[in-house]
Design a protein that fits this description.
Blueprint lengths: L1 H39 L5 H9 L2 H10 L5 H21 L5 E6 L10 E3 L2 E3 L8 H11 L2 E5 L2 H11 L3 E6 L1 H13 L3 E6 L12 H9 L9
Parallel strand pairs: 1-4, 1-5, 5-6
Antiparallel strand pairs: 2-3
């Protein structure tokens, strides 16, 4: 009986070791593909990369740090990959079934807008670019909201029942937003802020206008 128990423990130990080794090998391969994609903007074995970025994210980022490379590359490639997967379906969705979420940190420091149940209500005062962006997007047919947090996004999604979402935010917010879209079966794409923070953040507005005005299924800035 003791021998059988010892054999069982040995088997479990070997299984754990081999499993850990297999995950490490997969993470290394995923890291190489992510680094290649970041450098060339080409996606090879996208499903495997997506697995590496989501399931093996902690190990992959540790590998990047170990070799002295900024692990934010993993997030950048992950967002670009998810955008590429969703963009065609996003473009095929009628514009009136798409929502745009802008972060409140894009507003001017002296913004006079007030908070409402639908987020911050822009009055297009001209102190920042947000008012013009909203006006341009709404003229095309989008519904646009300036939101102070994820709870507003979830509430507005329940209220307006979109089929597709364009989100603007920092890397962390975009990652969380795209994951939310996947759970809700929405076609989500994200534009990352050029400079993140709590106030006075910046966005490449040319990219934003190009994105909303042209339904190219393969834009070169995603």
């Amino acid at each position: 009986m003791a021998i059988e128990i010892d054999s069982l423990f040995i088997l479990i130990g070997k299984t754990v070791i081999y499993g850990a080794l297999a995950l490490l090998i997969l993470a290394v391969l995923g890291s190489l593909l992510i680094a290649y994609s970041f450098k060339t903007e080409r996606f090879i074995f996208p499903n495997f990369m997506l697995f590496s970025i989501t399931v093996l994210e902690t190990i992959v980022k540790a590998i990047f740090r170990l070799v002295g490379v900024d692990d934010s590359i993993v997030d950048d490639v992950g967002i670009a990959l998810k955008n590429k997967i969703s963009i065609r379906k996003f473009r095929e969705t009628p514009v009136n079934k798409r929502l745009i979420f802008l972060p409140q940190c894009l507003r001017a420091v002296d913004c006079p807008s007030k908070l409402s149940p639908d987020g911050m209500k822009c009055i297009n005062c001209g102190h920042c670019e947000v008012g013009h962006a909203i006006k341009s997007a709404e003229s095309i047919g989008y519904k646009v909201f300036i939101v102070p947090g994820s709870s507003f996004i979830k509430r507005l999604v329940r209220k307006h029942k979109p089929n597709a979402i364009l989100g603007v935010g920092c890397i962390t917010e975009i990652k969380a937003g795209l994951e939310m879209c996947e759970k809700l079966n929405l076609f989500g794409v994200g534009l990352v802020l050029d400079r993140a923070g709590c106030v006075s953040t910046t966005l490449n507005w040319d990219n934003f206008y190009e994105f909303i005005e042209f339904d190219d299924p393969n834009p070169n800035y995603l």
